[in-house]
Amino acid sequence: MDIRRLCCASSRGTPASIALLACGLAAGLLAGCGGPDSSATPEAAPSLVVTTVRPAIREIERTLAASGSIAAWQEMSLGVELTGIRVAEVLVDVGDTVRGGQPLLRLDARTLKVQARQADASVAQAQASLKLARANAERGESLVREGLISSSNADELRATLTNAEAQLAVAQADREEARLRLGFATLAAPDAGVISSRTVQPGQIISSGMELLRLIRQGRLEWQAELTEADLGRVPVGTVVELTSPGGERVAGRVRAVSPAVNPDTRTGLLYADLPAPGDLRAGMFAQGQLLLGNAVATVLPRQSVVVRDGFPYVFVASTSGAMFNVEQRRISIGAQRGDYTEVVDGLKPGERIVVSGAGFLSDGDLVREVAGNGADTANGTAAIGTLAP
Question: What domains, with CATH codes, occur in the chain?
Fold first, then answer.
């Protein structure tokens, strides 16, 4: 029906107020018979299709990350107790493995050998003098008893004997010193180990107290890690340590000692872990490690569900049940991360649904639709967490 024609027809010979009323009734009739409804709102569309999971309780291996330096268990500074003697030959070099008692260095011992022979001669001379003094003293005792010499003469003979005995003792001590100095001409390894440093060359004149070589005793290395005062008490002696070498090799060790005191300025302390098989680790290297603190029951989520933003971990929680829902961005506290799973220390309630796939693309309040992912749990419509990987 043409509304304008109706209005024009009704206006002929009709008062203006009645004509306007007729036009309004016609327009309302037309709207009620199929015109568009301006009050209708289109249904909201989800921004993303996701899968969800519920937090699971699993037994996980608790770890503590730490960093430290590789150092020698005991590094010995080796030198000789002689001064002003020339080095004849150096028998080892850096990196050589040596056994206990093995010769490492020899000095020019010609002068020392001469001094040793002189000491031997002095001992022989002192022994001859003692023998003569003893014989004279014995004869003097006999002559005193016969009254052929005076008592004062006999006393002089006894004093000569005592002096001869003392001279022999001095000569023997000098001989021992000469032999000892001759022994110092060869520097031997005090224990098995690895030569870590060499600062001496053949022909060099050495002095007492000078460091000539350094030896890593028994070739043992250790990891010295710095921990906070809170973490230090969590690590008992015997804790297993896992390090990663520069070549990617995993090196195992065990804590042998924990510092009984902390630095008052930094509030940190050291732990010492033996490395029986250090692989390609070397003393002086920096190494990251994990301290294995044993198994514990914990709440875990797939690592994919945890989103890090501005340095903090977040998850997206389903606000309602059903296949379509809004998500709540929630900050959580995380613990150990092992395999594909992350421990959640705080921030979740039991039974809540957490977005897994698509979590990295969401914002707080987004409307999403859930679909079953791989290995979906048909009982509750959420993806199931598998066995925790070690």
Answer: 3-32 (no CATH), 48-59+297-383 (2.40.420.20), 65-73+218-295 (2.40.30.170), 82-103+189-217 (2.40.50.100), 109-184 (1.10.287)
